[in-house]
């Protein structure tokens, strides 16, 4: 065989090899794409439809929130210079700054705003500073809203505190020994299994939680958000409405909340904050901390709401003053004392506190039981001292001025 023929033969072999390799790459790519589609989008082939529906619902919810903001101006919409003494004003700023607090602080005395201002940046890259309208994920503080919705069902006779969880979720181990009251107060012994990694509907999320649930030490306190996810499932089942719709009709609409919504619309809000990881005491804004839509979605009833300090005060004030459920029902719901958790908050003799941490956000509040006095701290950078403890410290400073 001459050199020319040998060269042509090698070229044919090369192109044959190249063609088959290209086909193999295309097949592998298609396979990988299919795997991703099945693995990361839920319930194929309805996944694309579901994601599109979620996006549509998010857009509709966002549009409604925008309308609410236009219709519902609030006395909490602007920063308010301190009406405390100069000494106490300086003391409060010192406490917050030493704790590396970044966020917005609100103090209300006798139902009047006496202090409202921002600390640090809402979005450092954009040059936006925190202020009265800044929005934050409130995380577990949301549980007081969920507990209130559950209490409505108790008042209507549709649910009892003494109901065993087996009545609603028969497959949960030892469910006949676990009551609704235990779940409200974090004494159920329920622990979550692995978290979902794909988008699920509320019903699917509850079903997933039940399937992977674990039970340990019934009737001993252990703070586990899964309790409130399961309570949300009961609320939806008994009312025939979605959790989102109930929050809208029971809180957002009657309280005229223009700065509150669900985290699936958070990124669209012009007053949204960005959470920063607390990794460098010399640079609070070194790294943005993020969550994805699936993580938000997993927090049903327990941590997927955002709001402002003013709206949050209005929510908690309305609950404790009996504007959502009767005052007597609030007392039944929050029947613990001495700082024990009960009905979504930590209860003390004359006041209650609440705390939430999620995705770089740290939220805390302390309100008097008559709802006339309170401190709300919402932070987008985890402080050295939790916002709940800080709110209690500021609450005492405010009260001491009135003595």
UniProtKB/TrEMBL annotation:
<dbReference type="InterPro" id="IPR001466">
    <property type="entry name" value="Beta-lactam-related"/>
</dbReference>
<dbReference type="GO" id="GO:0016020">
    <property type="term" value="C:membrane"/>
</dbReference>
<dbReference type="InterPro" id="IPR050491">
    <property type="entry name" value="AmpC-like"/>
</dbReference>
<feature type="domain" description="Beta-lactamase-related">
    <location>
        <begin position="98"/>
        <end position="383"/>
    </location>
</feature>
<feature type="region of interest" description="Disordered">
    <location>
        <begin position="58"/>
        <end position="81"/>
    </location>
</feature>
<dbReference type="Pfam" id="PF00144">
    <property type="entry name" value="Beta-lactamase"/>
</dbReference>
<keyword id="KW-0472">Membrane</keyword>
<dbReference type="InterPro" id="IPR012338">
    <property type="entry name" value="Beta-lactam/transpept-like"/>
</dbReference>
<protein>
    <submittedName>
        <fullName>Penicillin-binding protein (Beta-lactamase class C)</fullName>
    </submittedName>
</protein>
<feature type="compositionally biased region" description="Polar residues">
    <location>
        <begin position="58"/>
        <end position="72"/>
    </location>
</feature>
């Amino acid at each position: 065989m001459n050199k020319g023929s040998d060269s042509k033969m090698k070229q044919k072999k090369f192109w044959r090899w190249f063609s088959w390799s290209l086909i193999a790459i295309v097949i592998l790519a298609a396979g990988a794409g299919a795997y991703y589609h099945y693995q990361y989008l839920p319930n194929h082939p309805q996944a694309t439809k579901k994601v599109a529906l979620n996006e549509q619902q998010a857009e509709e919810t966002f549009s409604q929130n925008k309308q609410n903001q236009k219709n519902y101006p609030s006395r909490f919409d602007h920063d308010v210079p301190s009406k405390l003494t100069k000494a106490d004003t300086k003391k409060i700023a010192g406490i917050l700054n030493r704790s590396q607090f970044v966020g917005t602080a609100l103090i209300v005395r006798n139902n009047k705003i006496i202090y409202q201002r921002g600390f640090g940046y809402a979005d450092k890259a954009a040059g936006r500073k925190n202020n009265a309208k800044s929005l934050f994920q409130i995380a577990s503080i949301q549980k007081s809203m969920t507990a209130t919705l559950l209490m409505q069902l108790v008042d209507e006779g549709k649910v009892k505190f003494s109901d065993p969880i087996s009545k609603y979720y028969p497959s949960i181990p030892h469910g006949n020994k676990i009551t609704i009251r235990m779940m409200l107060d974090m004494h159920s012994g329920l622990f979550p299994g692995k978290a979902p990694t794909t988008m699920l509907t509320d019903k699917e999320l509850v079903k997933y939680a039940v399937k992977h649930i674990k039970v340990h030490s019934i009737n001993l306190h252990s703070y586990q958000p899964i309790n409130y996810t399961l309570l949300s499932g009961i609320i939806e089942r008994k009312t025939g409405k979605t959790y989102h719709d109930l929050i809208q009709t029971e809180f957002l609409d009657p309280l005229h909340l223009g700065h509150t919504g669900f985290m699936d619309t958070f990124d669209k809000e012009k007053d949204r904050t960005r959470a920063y990881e607390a990794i460098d005491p010399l640079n609070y804004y070194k790294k943005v901390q993020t969550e994805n839509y699936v993580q938000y979605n997993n927090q049903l009833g327990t941590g997927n709401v955002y709001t402002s300090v003013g709206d949050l005060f209005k929510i908690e004030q309305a609950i404790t003053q009996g504007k959502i459920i009767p005052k007597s029902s609030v007392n039944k719901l929050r029947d613990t004392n001495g700082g024990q958790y009960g009905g979504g908050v930590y209860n003390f003799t004359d006041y209650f506190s609440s705390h939430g941490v999620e995705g770089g956000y740290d939220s805390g509040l302390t309100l008097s039981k008559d709802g006339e006095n309170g401190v709300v701290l919402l932070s987008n950078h985890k402080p050295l001292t939790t916002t709940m403890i800080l709110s209690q410290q500021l609450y005492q400073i405010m009260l001491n001025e009135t003595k």
